[in-house]
Amino acid sequence: xxxxxxxxxxxxxxxxxxxxxxxxxxxxxxxxxxxxxxxxxxxxxxxxxxxxxxxxxxxxxxxxxxxxxxxxxxxxxxxxxxxxxxxxxxxxxxxxxxxxxxxxxxxxxxxxxxxxxxxxxxxxxxxxxxxxxxxxxxxxxxxxxxxxxxxxxxxxxxxxxxxxxxxxxxxxxxxxxxxxxxxxxxxxxxxxxxxxxxxxxxxxxxxxxxxxxxxxxxxxxxxxxxxxxxxxxxxxxxxxxxxxxxxxxxxxxxxxxxxxxxxxxxxxxxxxxxxxxxxxxxxxxxxxxxxxxxxxxxxxxxxxxxxxxxxxxxxxxxxxxxxxxxxxxxxxxxxxxxxxxxxxxxxxxxxxxxxxxxxxxxxxxxxxxxxxxxxxxxxxxxxxxxxxxxxxxxxxxxxxxxxxxxxxxxxxxxxxxxxxxxxxxxxxxxxxxxxxxxxxxxxxxxxxxxxxxxxxxxxxxx
Length: 462
Prior knowledge:
This protein is 34% helix and 29% strand. The protein is of the alpha+beta class. The model is unreliable at 1-5 (pLDDT under 50).
């Protein structure tokens, strides 16, 4: 088994097998275990398998110290929200929603200890130890009638209760009675069909999985990154030939094990893990800021952690938007069911502020001036009006009503079409404003590629 061992990765979906569950006064249910993979953060949504219970990481401790996150290999305690200790057992596993499903049938590779008194036979009752779970099941030897002491072979285990297992998981087998260690092995397929014994096509497929089938190699590489990889990076990490890689990607995509978005390939389980975190962050944001139309994209990306880079973030939100799980605007993200909610007073304030900007035209009030006439809540009202498109933010301190902005742009285009070029002072006189507003307004039109600047002269960009 040591030949096949892999270093635990802090990337990819987290997995925490529970070895203890108890109640702490003032906190509720706490579970402990060693984080097998990934990174678990405070606030992360959690699914507990095989029970299928949904929860959230309320607090985390690592080696007895309070932390914001725990990484693979660390001894971890998690305070769970909304779960009773009587609902949990040793052997349950914390995973992200959408990652892994409980299994009662496993395809495995088994080595029987050389010193074992008995072989592993078909129909033998066995005790499977995987993670922190102990489960009773029966074995079906796929190549012969038994696996002799000192030998290894392929088997299918049919379990009496489900377990949460992933491809590559290590396990120990004991005889049902007497309860002596028989050997151990590796999970090759956690969701197989039931096989006939001595089926050569099944044996060949399991041999490829044990040696490293290209599709499984690619799947493993993608499972370690929530935001996926471009093809060239998959090639570098897997060392597969171009033909092997293309064939593996086609196979994985056909079976729904990977997704393609924004030039990247994402493993389905890793995608579901990150998508659940995105939804949890947005739910929290909408609860804190009910007046806002959505969460700024960069703020959302920052909340997901430093491993979510800009291109990976774009791939994730692109897929989630296509799936109808989020709604994207130019600068914000929101859940489909979220609608900005205002009290009666906030609605009156919003109407009054919009009317003030409409009447002010190209000489609007600045952000610093508004709290004096509309109170401190006006900042949230302004954000709502900007997100809703009634106001347009042209600089950190200045907004224009969209009607005034459209009027100014029309005047600008008309003048430039007639004269070919224009200075700041000429535009100021045309629209009847001051440099305080005209300079940032022209810079806004430069950014929008309405105009092109050369020194103090503007011309039409198109």
